[in-house]
Amino acid sequence: MKISRIIFAIVALELSVNYAFRLADATLKDAFKNDFDIGVALNARQFSGLDPKAQALIRQQFNSISPEDALKWRSVHPARGKYTFDVADKYVEFGVKNGLDIVGHTLIWHSHTDPWISVNEKGEQLNRDEMLHVMKDHITTVMGRYRGKIKGWDVVNEAFNEDGTYRKSKWHEIIGEDFIEKAYEYAHEADPSAELYYNDYNLFKPAKRAAVVRLLKKLKEKNIPLKGVGEQGHYYLQTPTVAEVEAAVLDLASTGYPVSITELDVNVLPKPAGQLTAEVSATLAYDEKWNPYVKGLPDTTARKLAHKYSTLFAMFHKHRDKIARVTFWGLTDGDSWLNGYPIKGRTNYPLLFDRNYQPKRPVFGDVVRVVGK
Questions:
Q1: How far is CA 174 from CA 77, 83, 125, in A?
Q2: Is 195 annotated as catalytic?
Q3: Per the residue annotation, which of 158, 195, 231, 246 is the catalytic one?
Q4: Which 3-state string (H, E, C) describes 297-359?
Q5: What is the per-residue pLDDT across 224-235, written as a single tens digit (0 to 9) for each?
Q6: What is the Cα–Cα distance from 94 to 44, expressed in whole angstroms?
Q7: Measured between alpha carbons, how far is 159 from 48 in angstroms, rounded to an integer?
Q8: pLDDT (tens digit, 9 = 90+) per residue, 114-161?
Q9: Which one of the listed residues 68, 181, 185, 263 is annotated catalytic?
Q10: Model-level pTM greater than 0.70?
Q11: Is 263 a catalytic residue?
């Protein structure tokens, strides 16, 4: 019996060593090279050179990048008549230098803007034509600066409420429903070579998805130069189910547009009642009961995370003819916005790489092995 146990231990050790060796050599972009692009959202430290470990990991694992904040309105256009491109230039420079597909995120959004965009110097609300001028100036200036360098843009972001009604943004209030069409018109004029996308969250919810599907069909009928649609992919361990995400992929793809999963992460922390959204303003007060994994993620939860990710990627691989890109919203657990949203000060583990830039077991291995199953 002792000999048998020794042999078993030796075999287990060899398997573990071989697994670790294969895991060290594996890359996400190679695993899915015949299926879809693998992207990651970057913060300023990463693309500006202040985090060399991150840069090495990005080059190794990914072939597409998105900016977390560098190209949002407030970052590049903080005041009327004032543009600041220092940070955005570094983002684009990093992508060009490393041969990565560069995504621009985002041009027209209800968030990350200041009140000045919709009022004049006297504080009076702009009329439709004036608001359209503000929109066109921003799109033309920002896209024009990176013309031919940025592959595709999230032109309009999060235009709908959860029930499928239009979000009451200043764009919608002042311009009307056709603000979306005008945004794509101006974007195509600014860079005819760029791919133009619509991006939103919770499209696994039928009412919201139906509204986006109607929008996509309308844009197609009007020959608006849209090239794809993004489901953000901010998920929890339990919700949505993979079947619900699959329904979203199939419904969106039925419009004829390629689908991307644009901001993928899986929140492993307890979900406060009613909290299933990516609306950045929906924050909650800190309570220790919502932050149970300060000292590390339990093995049981890590296995649940691995199962969620591997089943998601199995579904993505199954529908690889419909999916153009899968982008993770953050590089490592330490970079994730979910450490501060919807509750600040928590310790979350929603991505495939840990705080030491290492692939997480078992989740990373389970994902890269999806193609071989």
A1: 20, 23, 9
A2: no
A3: 158
A4: CCHHHHHHHHHHHHHHHHHHHHCCCCEEEEEECCCCHHHCHHHCCCECCCCCCCCCECCCCCE
A5: 999 999 999 999
A6: 11
A7: 31
A8: 999 999 999 999 999 999 999 999 999 999 999 999 999 999 999 999
A9: 263
A10: yes
A11: yes
